[in-house]
């Protein structure tokens, strides 16, 4: 990645409204988005925080499942078939509580789990924190997932940069107040660490707030390349070398 010619990567952040507590319906919906992303040439596609259940802390004890759940096998099949990396949000069991997790699927590779390492105070009654950072390595980039609250903590991006990461994948479910902070923070860390920042946000009701979408991508100079609105579902895709970004609506693809 440090030679004269950089390899490009097409990265897709999905903006969607999950069906509350309905994993089966959410899997089907995720697959529709993945098909469109793959058809548009995406190398990686990822989803908002807890996308397979919706962000509903009060429901996670009943919904939590682990990386071996056979319902997730279809994502591995899609990853293998379309040669695409896929990241989905899911509550993961951890002792007597639950972690805010993501499951990552790479083509013909064992799946990985990542758990949010820094929790908001409101999350502490329901969740426990993860204790390691997942790094995804491709021929073009080193990427890390960051889940909502932790993605607004400077030390999380600092640690990612120390690992040689150049793409920061923020999977979030944010109300308007959180989004206001994010819009200032993400370009700042992009400039500071010379990394692309791509944010996938949910829309619609989440727990006791409304997630406001506005999924976006900033290049490694902190320049906003494209941002979605607050109401529409879709796929925001960026080419990391050309900087070209587009939004695709699965309903019309």
Write the layout of secondary structure elements.
Blueprint: E1 10-15, H1 23-39, E2 44-46, H2 60-63, H3 73-82, E3 85-94, E4 97-105, E5 112-115, E6 136-137, E7 142-147, H4 154-162, E8 167-172, H5 176-193, E9 196-201, E10 203-206, E11 209-212, E12 216-218, E13 224-227, E14 234-239, E15 245-248
Parallel strand pairs: 1-2, 2-3, 7-8, 8-9
Antiparallel strand pairs: 1-14, 3-4, 4-5, 6-7, 9-12, 10-11, 12-13, 14-15
Give your account of this protein's structure:
The structure is a single chain. The protein has 253 residues and is an alpha/beta fold. The protein has a single domain, classed as Carbon-nitrogen hydrolase (Nitrilase/N-carbamoyl-D-aminoacid amidohydrolase, 4-Layer Sandwich). Helices cover 23% and strands 30% of the residues. It contains five helices and 15 strands. A seven-stranded mixed β-sheet has the order 5-4-3-2-1-14-15. A hairpin with a 5-residue loop joins strand 12 and strand 13. It is globular, with a radius of gyration of 16 Å. The protein starts with 9 loop residues before the first strand and ends in a 5-residue tail after the last strand.
Say how many strands there are: 15
What can be said about the biggest beta sheet? 7 strands, mixed
**Cross-sheet strand order for the largest sheet:** 5-4-3-2-1-14-15
Count of helical stretches: 5
Instruction: Classify the beta-strand content into a percent band.
Output: 25-35%
Distance between the termini: 32 Å
């Amino acid at each position: 990645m440090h030679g004269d010619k950089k390899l490009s990567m097409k990265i897709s952040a999905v903006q969607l409204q999950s069906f509350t507590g309905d994993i089966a319906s959410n899997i089907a919906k995720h697959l529709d988005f993945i098909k469109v992303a793959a058809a548009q040439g995406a190398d990686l596609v990822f989803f908002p925080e807890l996308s397979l259940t919706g962000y509903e802390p009060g429901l996670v004890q009943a919904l939590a499942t682990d990386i071996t759940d056979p319902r997730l096998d279809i994502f591995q099949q899609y990853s293998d078939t379309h040669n695409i990396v896929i990241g989905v949000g899911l509550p993961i069991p951890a002792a007597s509580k639950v972690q805010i997790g993501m499951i990552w699927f790479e083509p013909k590779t064992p799946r990985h789990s990542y758990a949010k390492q820094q929790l908001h105070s409101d999350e502490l009654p329901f969740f426990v924190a993860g204790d390691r950072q997942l790094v995804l390595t491709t021929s073009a980039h080193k990427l890390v997932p960051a889940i909502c609250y932790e993605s607004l903590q400077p030390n999380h991006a600092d640690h990612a940069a120390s690992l040689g990461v150049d793409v920061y994948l923020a999977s979030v479910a944010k109300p308007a107040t959180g989004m206001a902070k994010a819009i200032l923070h993400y370009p700042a860390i992009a400039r500071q660490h010379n990394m692309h920042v791509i944010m996938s946000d949910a829309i619609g009701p989440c727990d006791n707030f409304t997630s406001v979408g506005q999924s976006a991508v900033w290049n490694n100079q902190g320049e906003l390349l494209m941002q979605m609105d607050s109401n529409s579902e879709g796929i925001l895709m960026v080419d990391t070398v050309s900087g070209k970004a587009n939004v695709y609506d699965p309903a019309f693809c």
